[in-house]
Amino acid sequence: MSRDIEKSVDTSTEESQSNAAVRKAQGEFVRGVSGFRAAIGDAQFPAEAGRYHLYVAYNCPWCHRVLLARNVLGLRNSISVDVAYPGRTNDDDPVAPNLWEFNPERVSTLTGTKFAECTTETGTGQAYRLVKQIYADEGSEEGSVPVLYDKKSKRIVNNESAEIIRMLNAQAKQLGSGLPPSDLPELYPANNEMREQIDALNAAIYTNINNGAYKAGFSSDQAVYAKAFAAYFDQLATLESLLASDNRAFLTGDKFTEADLRLFPTLYRHDPVYYLRMKLNGAKILDYPHLWRWLCRVYALPGVANSNSLDHCKQGYFGRSWNNVVPIGPNYPMPYPKAYSHPELAGDNPMSGRLK
């Protein structure tokens, strides 16, 4: 069904499971390891346009990075997508609570309307209601998103987002990218020096920011939370300094790469969601001029703005909080995501080093 997970841990992709039960008991959030690790390009999963499908939820940052890769690589017309409701199932669900479900009829408590982006399940041909049912066909107990699915063989290919974006980049032309070669980005260039830079950034960003946000927000121990909080803002300060060092456009220079793509979903959520929900209230991204302008620069790239929805994010994160009330703001200096089209909002007061 799924390929065995390597014992060595790639810290840019997943978290060590060493003493996971003990760590959880001590109040630490420990992210599990994805079980399906095949790749497009393997013998059983050839690269073909129109063959593959994604199951995602817009509030999930791991899904967001996959949707970003699909969009910026020109694969919107060749890789189909089903979108789950961001709130998961309730306690009265006939199967179980806290499951991803395809339910376009569900009404958002934030907007009072249905989410236009939510869909039924179309990839399997079975019109399943729950993501867990797709896994059950493989004999798996997993239930996470994103899922990369092969519509021809009716098999799950992969459910590790870091690997999915890497294979979409490597196979973009064969998968039917609609972009001309001159416009097709190289998210992971062949140059070894560039790859070393990207790999190093990925490891730091995953550990301290992508997964670090969850370490802070879902911790039940004050000291564990404080450690994650400090690491998160130390890393933001480091990235602010990196961008400021030569006023570079992107993390590795003048080209948008996988490192930028993997950082974006967390920073996109920080001011309107994580600042409150994940208790990451040390500063807003708006307080880091170079990071804010980087965020706006990425948001302006073709395909990025329509890869996600902050309404889904707010519903998904706050709709599962203790009272299920979803905050409306922030509205100052202007509502989000409109603010992401205004790089000038950041001003010129660098935060680098202040929170170390």
Commentary on this structure:
This protein is mainly α. The protein folds into 2 domains: 34-184, Glutaredoxin (3-Layer(aba) Sandwich), CATH 3.40.30.10; 192-346, Glutathione S-transferase Yfyf (Class Pi), Chain A, domain 2 (Up-down Bundle), CATH 1.20.1050. It has 9 helices and 4 strands, in the order αβαβαββαααααα. Strands 2-1-3-4 form a 4-stranded mixed sheet. α6 (222-246) packs across α8. The longest helix has 26 residues, at 192-217. It is globular and about 55 Å long. Mean pLDDT is 92; it is low at 1-7 and 352-356.
Report a brief summary of the structure:
With 356 residues, the chain is mainly alpha-helical. The protein has helices at 20-25, 61-72, 131-136, 161-170, 192-217, 222-246, 258-277, 289-299, 310-318, and strands at 52-57, 80-84, 147-150, 155-158.
Oligomer designation = single chain
The name of the CATH architecture of the largest domain is Up-down Bundle
**Ends apart, CA distance between termini:** 45 Å
Number of alpha- plus pi-helical segments: 9
How many domains, as an integer? 2
**Shape from CA axes?**
globular
* Beta strand %: 5-15%
Mean pLDDT equals 92
Q: How many DSSP-defined strands?
A: 4
Order of helices and strands: HEHEHEEHHHHHH
The major β-sheet equals: 4 strands, mixed
Instruction: Give the proportion of residues in helices.
Output: 25-40%
**Class of the largest domain, according to the CATH hierarchy?**
Mainly Alpha
Strand order in space, largest sheet: 2-1-3-4
- Spatial extent as radius of gyration: 20 Å
Structural class by sheet pairing and helices: mainly alpha
| Poorly predicted parts | 1-7, 352-356
CATH fold type of the largest domain: Glutathione S-transferase Yfyf (Class Pi), Chain A, domain 2
